[in-house]
Amino acid sequence: MFTKIYGYLCKIEQTIAGAFLCLIAIFVFISAIARSMHHPINWAEDLSMLLFAWAVFLSADVALRTRGFVGIDMIVSKFPARYRSFLFYLWSALVLVFLGILACYSIPLCINNYKRLFQALGISYSWATASVPVGALAMFITSILKIIDHHKENKSKERAR
């Protein structure tokens, strides 16, 4: 049940991230053309910044989940299996600590930005800064699930021996 809901949420997240990236490109393109014709669209820049903040953190979670981040497999693959596993757990622990710190510091930032407004949109800048704790939480969950999957994989390899 949980994996089905999680898979559904991951598809939604990936769709939203992709849509935001496309919308950013469209808004920036239209804004540049309008500006060159001396009719700037002021809201397009603010909306692009808002969408960019969300696209960055949602896409980072998608990349983490699909192993899209750059790794040093060339070096790590030269180590014996038990060292590779240790390095995986060490790296995962460091990632979890970083994401926890990111979430802890970004929540007060989000709260403090509620008075700051996007000039052309008239909405709180907290809508943009909220992408940081939401993205950090999503990546934290993804990292935990990857650790669980790695542990299950190691257990099944041990049983096969």
TrEMBL record:
Keywords associated with the record: Cell inner membrane, Cell membrane, Membrane, Transmembrane, Transmembrane helix, Transport
GO molecular function: transmembrane transporter activity
Protein's UniProt keywords contain Membrane: yes
GO cellular component assignments: plasma membrane
Membrane association type: Multi-pass membrane protein
Transmembrane segments: 12-35, 47-65, 86-108, 128-148
Family: Belongs to the TRAP transporter small permease family.
Protein name: TRAP-type C4-dicarboxylate transport system, small permease component
Organism in which the protein naturally occurs: Acetomicrobium mobile (strain ATCC BAA-54 / DSM 13181 / JCM 12221 / NGA)
